[in-house]
Design a protein that fits this description.
469 residues, seven-stranded mixed beta sheet, 15 helices, globular
Length: 469
C-alpha cells in the first residue's frame, strides 16, 4: 500500500461511549468510523469498555488494514489489577465523588496545596486517582489487599490491545500520568511515596512513554502511547501556544497549550502534561453539557428549542442567574454542592430567561477557569470550542461575550479520537513533530464582552449549598 494511503485509527474511550475513527495517516482524511455506548454510572467494570471497543471497531469496518492505532481515554479513573492481571473491582471513574474526604485528608497530611503543587503540579480532589486509592484502601481493605497494580482507563485498553501479557507490559503516556496525583509533569517521574501514602503500600504502575514512542502491537498494527482525553482533543484540533481549548462534554474543560508546567497551590489549575511533550494547564468542572440537557428537559424542549429560547432573552437574563452545580462541583471543590436559581421575579420566571441563565451560568463557570489559567501565565489569543455543548447555537453565540475573546468552533467531530489518530500517524512516521492535518469547516464567533453577566454571577456563585473544601 502506498505510504500516502496508509491508515491509522484513533480510539476515544470516554465516560459515555467508545468512538473509533480511521483516517489517512498523511492527510487526516476520514475514511470510516464507529461507536458504541458505555454503561451509566460512576463505577464501571472495565470489561464493558473492551466490549464497547470491539463493537465500535466492528462498526468502523475493523482494523485489519490499519497500520497504527492509539487510545485516548477518560482521565483519572482507578483500574486496579491483581497479580494475574484480573480486575480487582469495578473502575472508579473521574466523576465518582465518594473520595472527596480522602482527597481533603491527603492535602492536609502533606502540608497543604502548595506542597502538592510543588510535588506533582496537582492538588488532589475527589476525581484524582491518588484520592481514589486512599478511599479504596480505607473502605474496601479486603479487595485492596488483592491489588498488585493500578492503571488508567486508556492504559488498560492499550494493554488489552497489546495482548495483556503481564503487568510489566502496562504502558501509559505523560498526559494521562500527570492526572494521577503521583506523577510529576515537571520532573517527568513518579512520586511513589505519594502513591504509598495514599494506598499504604506500593503498587506496580505503567511505564510512561514519550509522545510518539511505540507501546506495542495490536495484531498487525503499531500501538501508540495513547493520551488522556483532554490532551488528545488538544492534539486533535491542532491547538498551539496562545490557544485555549474549551470542551463542553460530560465535564467542562478549559486548558491551554503551554511551554512551562503549572503549579497552582489553590488546586484550581491542574499542572498536566500534553500529548506533544509540552504542558497543558487545565481547569475542569463537573457540570457542563448535562446542564443544557437538564434545562431542556425542565422546559419541555430539545437543544434547538433551548437555544431559541435563550437567544430570545436579553444578555444577563434581567438578573436571573443559574449556578449550575447540579452534580456537586470539582472547580471550585464543592463535591456536595447543589445548584441554585437566583433572581426569580414575575418578569424573569419565564422559559426564555431560565434558558438564558442556564447557558450563561455554564459559560461563567468556564470563564472563571479561563481567568485561573491566565493567573498561571497562560496567554489567550483565541478559544477553540469543542464537545457536545458546542453544537448549541446559543452557547456558540454567547460564548465570546462571556469569555471575552474570539471563539473558533470547528465542525462537530470526535476530536479526542482524532487526536489519538494523529498520534498514531506520528508514531508511524517517526518524525519529530506530529503530521499537519487541516482543521476544516471551522467558524469564528465574536461579540462585545458582557462583563455585567460575570459580575452578577460572581455575586451569587457562593450562595449555594455545599461548603468549599
Amino acid at each position: 500500500m502506498p505510504a500516502a494511503a496508509r491508515l491509522v485509527a484513533g480510539i476515544d474511550s470516554s465516560t459515555q461511549s467508545c468512538k473509533v475513527v480511521v483516517r489517512e495517516a498523511a492527510t487526516g482524511v476520514l475514511v470510516r468510523q464507529g461507536r458504541a455506548p458505555h454503561p451509566d454510572g460512576t463505577e464501571v467494570d472495565p470489561t464493558a469498555w473492551w466490549t464497547a471497543l470491539q463493537d465500535a471497531i466492528a462498526q468502523a469496518g475493523g482494523l485489519d488494514d490499519v497500520a497504527a492505532v492509539s487510545v485516548g481515554g477518560q482521565q483519572h479513573g482507578m483500574v486496579c489489577l491483581d497479580e494475574t492481571g484480573d480486575v480487582v473491582r469495578p473502575a472508579l471513574l473521574w466523576n465518582d465523588t465518594r473520595s472527596a474526604a480522602a482527597a481533603h485528608d491527603l492535602v492536609a497530611e502533606l502540608g497543604g496545596g502548595q506542597a502538592w503543587a510543588d510535588a506533582v503540579g496537582v492538588v488532589p480532589v475527589a476525581s484524582i486517582t491518588v484520592a481514589k486509592l486512599r478511599w479504596f484502601a480505607q473502605h474496601e481493605p479486603d479487595l485492596a489487599g488483592r491489588a498488585a497494580a493500578v492503571c488508567l482507563p486508556h492504559d488498560w485498553l492499550t494493554w488489552r490491545l497489546a495482548g495483556a501479557d503481564g503487568l510489566d507490559a502496562l504502558r501509559t503516556d505523560r498526559s494521562d500520568a500527570s492526572g494521577t496525583g503521583y506523577w510529576s509533569a515537571a520532573a517527568a517521574s513518579y512520586r511513589m511515596d505519594l502513591l504509598e501514602r495514599a494506598f499504604g503500600r506500593a503498587l506496580h504502575v505503567p511505564a510512561v512513554l514519550g509522545p510518539h514512542e511505540v507501546a506495542g502491537a495490536a495484531g498487525g498494527s503499531t500501538l501508540g502511547p495513547g493520551a488522556g482525553d483532554n490532551a488528545a482533543a488538544a492534539l486533535g484540533v491542532g491547538a498551539g501556544l496562545g490557544d485555549v481549548v474549551v470542551s463542553i462534554g460530560t465535564s467542562g474543560v478549559v486548558c491551554a497549550v503551554a511551554a512551562v508546567p503549572a503549579r497552582d497551590p489553590a488546586g484550581i489549575v491542574a499542572g498536566f502534561a500534553d500529548a506533544t511533550g509540552g504542558y497543558l494547564p487545565l481547569v475542569c468542572t463537573l457540570n457542563a453539557s448535562r446542564v443544557l440537557d437538564a434545562t431542556a428537559r425542565l422546559l419541555g424542549t430539545d437543544h434547538d428549542g433551548l437555544s431559541r429560547l435563550a437567544l430570545s432573552a436579553p444578555a444577563g437574563a434581567d438578573g436571573l442567574v443559574l449556578v449550575p452545580y447540579l452534580e456537586g462541583e470539582r472547580t471550585p471543590d464543592r463535591p456536595d454542592a447543589t445548584g441554585a436559581l437566583h433572581g426569580l421575579t414575575l418578569e424573569t420566571m419565564t422559559a426564555a430567561h431560565i434558558a438564558r441563565a442556564a447557558v450563561e451560568g455554564l459559560l461563567c463557570g468556564l470563564a472563571d477557569g479561563l481567568d485561573a489559567l491566565v493567573a498561571q501565565g497562560a496567554v489567550v489569543r483565541r478559544v477553540l470550542l469543542v464537545g457536545g455543548g458546542a453544537r448549541s447555537e446559543a452557547v456558540r453565540r454567547v460564548a465570546p461575550a462571556v469569555l471575552g475573546c474570539p471563539v473558533l468552533v470547528p465542525e462537530p467531530g470526535e476530536y479526542v479520537a482524532d487526536g489519538a489518530a494523529r498520534q498514531a500517524a506520528w508514531v508511524l512516521s517517526g518524525d519529530e513533530q506530529p503530521p499537519e492535518w487541516e482543521l476544516a469547516g471551522a467558524s469564528t464567533y465574536e461579540a462585545d464582552p458582557t462583563p455585567g453577566v460575570r459580575a452578577r454571577y460572581a455575586e451569587v456563585r457562593d450562595l449555594t449549598a455545599g461548603q468549599l473544601r
